Amino acid sequence: MPSPRLHGKVAIITGGGSGFGAGIVQKFHAEGCRILIWDINPAPAHALAASLNQPSSPSSSSSSSSCSVFIGDVSKAADWDAALAQCLHAFGTLDIVVNNAGVVHVARPSEEVPEDEVDRMWRVNVKPLYHSARAVVPYFRREGRGGVVVNLSSVSAPRPRPRLVWYAASKGAVTAATRGLAAEYAADKIRYNCIQPVLGETAMVAPVLGGTDTPEGRAAPLAGIPLGRMSTPRDIANAACFLASDEAEFLTGVCLDVDGGRSLM
């Protein structure tokens, strides 16, 4: 039997307690990765870690946990330093960072979006790329083995839509930063790639639809997805796993549309 794709790897996954993040955590764990689950909400992160740290059978046991939990704010530099320190204490190394945590504003005319919501999206969606680079690039360089960063952007970066312009702008910054960082750190064997999902089956559906999730509200975005459905955490997790794995060792600066063909419309 072949080894799991991420056997022996260690990852920090932000926003890992729910939505796409939880899907990524579950996939990485299944592929042999040890994970620091980072979330701002303790309950879902601890529940997910507890479920994954259970022995695979009643007769089996493990001397160490495969998942650790860090509760913190991705927009704060000090929390990135603390998360890296906890990861190294728990697992002794770091190979992969997944910048998944993100927020969206309620869809509305662009001139009506509150300024604090715009600021929040830039703080949560964009600034962690800066903080993560500042924290982990020096570590990757010291270790000399390179590293992998996977950022979560959105298909709204290349295909911005009315009423979600400021969200699209923040995700456009993620895409641009990913490509720039890929070029800058390639010589250090640090690969940067991003995923650009279409609207997914997560808690973001309601705000994207204007505040309420209804079948009628879903009809319009679904009509623009040729494969006829929203993305799922499993879809995004599979893409993230591939980009983080050694199978993708020659890929950097890739912005992968996981969108059911939405970017073609």
TrEMBL record:
Q: Which UniProt keywords apply?
A: NADP, Oxidoreductase
Give a yes or no for keyword Oxidoreductase in this entry.
yes
GO MF terms here are: oxidoreductase activity
Q: What SUPFAM superfamilies does the record tag this protein with?
A: NAD(P)-binding Rossmann-fold domains (SSF51735)
Gene3D superfamilies found in the cross-reference section: NAD(P)-binding Rossmann-like Domain
Q: Which Pfam families match?
A: adh_short_C2 (PF13561)
Q: What is this protein called?
A: NAD(P)-binding protein
Q: Which organism is it from?
A: Trematosphaeria pertusa
